[in-house]
Amino acid sequence: MTSNPAVTHGALRRFLFYYIFFLIVVQQGLFVLVGGLDIGFDINPALRVWLFVAVVPLTLTVWRVLAERGELAGFAWEHWIPWAVTGFLMCGFWSGGYFGVGILTDPANARLLPPEWERFDKFVPFVPSYAFLYICVYPLFVLPFFRATKNGDLLRLVIGLVVMLAISYTIFLTMPVTFPRPDLPENQSFPVWLMQIVHGQDPPWNCLPSTHCAVALLSALALYEASPRLGAWGLLTAFLIALSTVFTKQHYIVDAIAGFALAGLTFWLLKWIWRNPDKIPERARQLLPED
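The structure assignment produced for this chain is given below.
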């Protein structure tokens, strides 16, 4: 397998893709098992991480790569490594900018939403098990960089992420919105333990719009361009992530809607530019890649 460079590149690319994919699937499965079937997994937290972040997804990944061992050369793409690095850099830009803005924001300037904007949020219960879906956004963010095969699609994704995040960070700094988080239960169940980590890292402001929802939808749409079947799963995952932001009481409903609207508008605008290059300045037109 290693004697053929195309097979080696295809195997590595496919391995990373499946590992990231199964990280999401495992969290979705935990949501069903813990939240739906009330299976506790009351084991040492370090063992939880080792089991559900390493052992299970890696086992599933090896199984899938071995199942495709005769087709691995077909997954090789000369541009995949630079784009994979770009994906992780963009994830760093998102998280670094988000937490950086959170540090720069004075909590005294953060405001609750007006009552007429959050009238329906009081009907949404706090469900800690949705934390399993909440963290799915991080692997979903980078997944398209390991699946797409067109420079133009990935360039649109990167531009869209930069535009969306720049708009969001500007709003966070100028009009910070906060959410009154509920107290966590005293028990140390698996979902409560995970919510403690979320609360410990994520500031209670930077709410409107939800970048969680925005990047999830844009990544899902990028997946759909690469593979409609995978994209359908990605869109469902993005919707579940949006639900998780509300049921974990990290965001208002309006935040999630605003995040989806920002992502949808950004995606549509960039698609329009790609289809109508004659409508943009010549200098910008020269930056559009030909696949």
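Interim note for the steering committee: The mean pLDDT is 90. The longest helix spans residues 5-36.
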